[in-house]
């Protein structure tokens, strides 16, 4: 650490000397401090981000199918010092692989559990990828737009459907022993294949377009509705689920023992002034309250949370996407999670943002006695536009933002950005971001990126790429 600080100090001194010289010589020419700051981030990229040299621009290339099939790594260009290899490009891999969970743990995974975001219920919705050889097997079909996936502390897998007011969360126990099961999304039951009893619909979490799942070890769960504003109604809101019986650490052997089987839902409404009445358009950051969601008239169907957003006047955002728990805050006993509101690049020039939420200590969050707070981490730009997935990098504590931008409409590819945490300066925003990877397929996007515990092995999907099937890459070389 002392060596790193000494190197940063030398860089900053050299940079300040250069700044003084440049500013003095060209003040009358309109010296651009912002560009100078960006250059300093690139110069210090190895120390701050673990890459030797970040990418200066997005790719504008778009490889053809034959090239992608022959060499799937051709789909991506990464920063100097990073390396790419193929985890899988199996023809059986779902065409729209989205989020990824490591199984059975983050330190020595043997498999990736992935969602396939497709609308055809006859196609695989949840799959497993064996890391030793990249082979792909189907766990579950019958879902629509399977998007988020998380491994739980009690040894199960959660997946969710990004499907409007009918989306639901499904829990799977023993995912390596569950194969070719068919899920009936109307009845919430599973049949066929091997291990149908290992699958259950979690209607207690309600219904919405599931994307981000910030899951805590005791079963407290935060999630957003991937929705946009329309004709004056708010966009997607954020919700909180508190289990009736929080998980206390015992191993579960049956899905009926899951803390997600029953609980209470709350919706986020920002604005504390005048007895919590200072809410509505304009109150999208700051302190707020958790508003109780009334129970569903039919618990077996689950509450329509999108409808509750409008009726309870919850705070809305432009397409809430992925959410990631801040493990450093959790290690200190505090609740903090960050995610992305994607926005709309091509038609609105709404670049989106990364946003972080706090909710007191984990004990306070579980008792629902904390005051929630939302603050932006990264404000989108024409270069860093429409953030979708986020990933926390262990060791460095940086955040990797995945773009889901307009692609062909804007003539550039989607990128991966590494963003610093906020430091001790006056603002609460990231201290800076650099581009660490770019795609070479204008119709594809990065999704599902996740690090192992070392912070040096990054698994990420190239979704709806030109090959027509799933491609998962592993990016290494982070110092």
Structure explained in plain terms:
- Helix content is 14%, strand content 35%.
- It has 479 residues and is an alpha+beta fold.
- It folds into two domains: 1-21 and 32-43; 44-476, TolB, C-terminal domain (Neuraminidase, 6 Propeller).
- The strands form five sheets. Strands 13-14-15-16-17-21-20-19-18 form a nine-stranded antiparallel beta sheet. It has a six-stranded mixed beta sheet with strand order 3-4-5-6-10-11, with no helix packed on it. A five-stranded antiparallel beta sheet has the order 1-25-24-23-22.
- β13 and β14 (221-225) form a beta hairpin.
Class per helix and strand makeup: alpha+beta
- Low-confidence runs: 1-7
Give Rg in angstroms.
Answer: 22 Å
Distance between the termini: 14 Å
Task: Please indicate the percent range of residues in DSSP E strands (runs of 2 or more).
Answer: 25-35%
Report the CATH C-level class of the largest domain.
Mainly Beta
Give a summary of the structure in a few sentences:
With 479 residues, this protein is an alpha+beta fold. The protein is built from eight helices and 28 strands.
Supply the key terms.
single chain, alpha+beta, Neuraminidase, 9-stranded antiparallel β-sheet, 8 helices, 35% strand
Note the topology.
Blueprint: H1 2-26, H2 33-43, H3 45-48, H4 65-70, E1 76-78, E2 83-88, E3 97-103, E4 111-116, E5 124-130, E6 136-141, E7 146-151, E8 156-161, E9 169-173, E10 181-184, E11 189-191, E12 199-201, E13 210-215, E14 221-225, E15 238-243, E16 263-270, H5 273-276, E17 286-292, H6 305-311, E18 320-325, H7 327-331, E19 334-341, E20 353-361, H8 362-367, E21 373-379, E22 387-393, E23 398-403, E24 415-419, E25 433-439, E26 445-451, E27 458-463, E28 472-476
Parallel strand pairs: 6-10
Antiparallel strand pairs: 1-25, 2-28, 3-4, 4-5, 5-6, 7-8, 8-9, 9-12, 10-11, 13-14, 14-15, 15-16, 16-17, 17-21, 18-19, 19-20, 20-21, 22-23, 23-24, 24-25, 26-27, 27-28
């Amino acid at each position: 650490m002392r060596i790193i600080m000494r190197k940063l100090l030398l860089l900053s001194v050299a940079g300040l000397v250069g700044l003084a010289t440049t500013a003095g010589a060209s003040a009358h020419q309109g010296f651009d401090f912002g560009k100078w700051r960006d250059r300093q981030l690139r110069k210090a990229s190895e120390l701050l981000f673990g890459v030797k040299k970040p990418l200066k621009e997005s790719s504008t290339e778009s490889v053809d199918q034959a090239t992608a099939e022959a060499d799937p790594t051709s789909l991506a260009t990464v920063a100097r010092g990073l390396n790419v290899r193929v985890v899988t490009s199996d023809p059986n891999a779902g065409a729209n692989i989205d989020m990824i969970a490591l199984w059975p743990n983050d330190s020595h995974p043997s498999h990736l559990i992935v969602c396939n975001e497709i609308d055809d219920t006859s196609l695989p919705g949840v799959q497993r990828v064996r890391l030793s050889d990249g082979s792909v097997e189907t766990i579950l079909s019958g879902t629509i737009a399977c998007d988020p996936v998380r491994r739980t502390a009690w040894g199960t897998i959660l997946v969710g459907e990004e499907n409007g007011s009918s989306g639901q969360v499904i829990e799977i126990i023993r995912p390596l022993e569950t194969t070719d099961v068919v899920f009936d999304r109307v009845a919430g039951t599973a049949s066929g294949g091997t291990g149908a009893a290992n699958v259950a619909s979690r209607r207690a979490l309600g219904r919405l377009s599931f994307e981000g799942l910030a899951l805590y070890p005791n079963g407290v769960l935060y999630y957003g509705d991937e929705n946009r504003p329309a004709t004056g109604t708010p966009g997607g809101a954020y919700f909180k689920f508190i289990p009736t019986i929080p998980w206390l650490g015992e191993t579960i052997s049956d899905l009926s023992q899951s803390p997600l089987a029953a609980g209470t839902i709350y919706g986020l409404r920002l604005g504390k002034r005048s007895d919590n009445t200072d809410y509505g358009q304009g109150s999208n950051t700051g302190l707020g309250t958790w508003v109780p969601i009334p129970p569903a008239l039919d618990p077996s169907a689950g509450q329509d949370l999108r409808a509750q957003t409008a009726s309870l006047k919850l705070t809305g955002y432009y397409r809430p996407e992925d959410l990631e728990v801040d493990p450093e805050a959790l290690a200190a006993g505090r609740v903090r999670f960050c995610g992305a509101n994607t926005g709309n690049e091509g038609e609105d020039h709404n670049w989106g943002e990364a946003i972080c939420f706090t909710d007191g200590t984990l004990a306070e969050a579980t008792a629902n006695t904390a005051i929630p707070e939302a603050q932006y981490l990264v404000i989108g730009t024409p270069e860093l536009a429409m953030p979708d997935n986020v990933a926390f990098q262990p060791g460095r504590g940086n955040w990797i933002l995945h773009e889901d931008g307009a692609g062909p409409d804007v003539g550039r590819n989607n990128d991966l950005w590494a963003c610093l945490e906020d430091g001790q300066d006056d603002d609460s925003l990231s201290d800076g971001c650099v581009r660490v990877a770019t795609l070479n397929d204008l119709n594809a996007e990065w999704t599902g990126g996740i690090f192992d515990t070392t912070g040096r092995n990054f698994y990420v999907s190239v979704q709806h790429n030109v090959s027509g099937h799933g491609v998962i890459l592993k990016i290494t070389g982070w110092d």
